[in-house]
Amino acid sequence: MKKVLVLGGKLQGVEAAYLMKKAGWHVTIADRNARCPAAQLGDAFLQMNFMEDDRLETAMKEADFIIPALEKLYVLERIAKAAEECKVPIMFNLDSFRISHSKLRSDRLFAKIGVPAPKPWPECGLPVIIKPSGRSGSEGVRLMSTEEELQKWKQAALTRADWVVQEYLSGPSYSIEIIAKKGEMKTFQVTELEMDRRHDCKRVLCPSLLPREKELEFTEIAGQLAAAVELDGIMDVEVILNKNQLKVLEIDARLPSQTLTAVYNSTGVNAPAVYADGLPPGEMAMFTQSEGVGVIYEHIEVRGRRLRTAGEHIMGGHGPLSLVENFFGADEAITNYKPGKNSWVATLIMKDTDRKAVWAKHERVIKNIMEANGLWDYDDYGLEEM
After folding, report:
1. What is the mean pLDDT of the chain?
2. What is d(CA 226, CA 176) in angstroms, rounded to the nearest whole number?
């Protein structure tokens, strides 16, 4: 059996462990926290500090493939160097990540190659989105609608040069993943994203409702960006559809969380396994055009008598998590639920013939959870309620 070493046991580690187990690989998770979310989702667990533990190289030499599942640049530099010395294939490119890790640098790249993106402030008017340049996804994102709010932030912010300030755009959000290996590129199914009030993704839906011509336009944008960062590994691209134009919000040249599991359940295409086994010849969008069933991948939290959906941040502080089948009617759940607990979290994975059918399943699952656990309130608020 082929062996994969997943370095990092938080939410990206959960994604990697889930997918590579589904692909039939022996999965070893490594993290310094023995109670990280992914600790029990693989076949083996190694507790180690990647910066200090010389067992890292030993573990790498025993693996056939390495997936970094973290985002700290200095740690990834150590991992990339060790993998190169050990001559073990790794799904990661450090130079590409250095560009995507900085939203300021990414935005300059978008402008240089002519990729549509939100206008920077002060070229745009209010409202604006403010986000730290070097943090992941939704972390630290703020919406400011008035000049007074913006001025207060400017006075309080000590390092404004490290923040991105750009126009706020309304519209549906979409994501696409692209992998590149030895000059070959492949994109995957487009996913639709729903956000919570913190701008954190709470729900992934497949297939997206993006028209086919827009999906193909999206694949071309992803290919342009992958070529521009000289990708050899995996990258996700997030866009918003505003006034019928796709505008790139951000790129991340590392393993994403959430979307690839949804894509796998919809189409059966397992992106990390495709990368590990070698990209097949053919057009870049061959997997993007795969017909998929309806999938909902969402995060829920139960506290007391209340159930709410929220972004994936609610999953990060809980562990170890377990994979459970037929969870109150959901096909699968990744969760710390135990009967009788009044505080727990779960990532629900539901699939059915199409989007309409899977949404009906979602409603039954929520009803089942509430009835079985004596819950009174259900909160599914998102950005649209702001």
Report:
1. 93
2. 12
Q: What is the dihedral of CA 356, 296, 252, 87, to 10 degrees?
A: -130
**Cα 128 off chain centre by:** 24
* Bridge partners, 7 (sequence order): 30, 68
Asked if residues 193 and 171 have their Cβ atoms less than 8 Å apart, the reply is no
**The residue count for the chain:** 386
**At CA 20, angle to CA 15 and CA 23, rounded to 5?**
135
128-132/44-47 β-pairing: unpaired
pLDDT tens-digit map of 27-60: 999 999 999 999 999 999 999 999 988 899 999 9
Phi/psi of residue 335, nearest 5 degrees: -155, 165
Predicted local confidence at residue 386, as pLDDT: 38
CA 346, CA 355: separation in Å to the nearest integer?
21
Which residues, given as ranges, of the chain have pLDDT below 70? 134-140, 157-161, 383-386
Which two structure tokens, joined as six digits, stand for 270? 């397992």
Quote the DSSP letter at residue 32. S
Whether the Cβ atoms of residue 248 and residue 225 lie closer than 8 Å to each other: yes
Q: Put the strands of the sheet holding 3-7 in their side by side order.
A: 44-47, 26-31, 3-7, 65-68
Whether the Cβ atoms of residue 300 and residue 349 lie closer than 8 Å to each other: no
pLDDT score at 155: 73
C-alpha 77/C-alpha 123 separation (Å) is 36
CA distance 234 to 226: 9
CA 324/CA 322 separation, integer angstroms: 6
As a whole number of angstroms, the distance between CA 331 and CA 325 comes to 6
Q: Which single residue is written with the structure tokens 């370095």?
A: 7
CA distance 97 to 231: 9
pLDDT score at 385: 44
The values of phi and psi at residue 85, to 5°, are: -65, -35
Residue appearing with tokens 């693989």:
42
Residue carrying the six token digits 């030895």: 182
Cβ–Cβ < 8 Å for 36, 9: yes
Q: Are 87 and 26 a contacting pair, CB within 8 Å?
A: no
**Separation between Cα atoms, residue 6 and residue 45, nearest integer Å:** 10
Q: For residue 341, what are its two tokens?
A: 């607990």
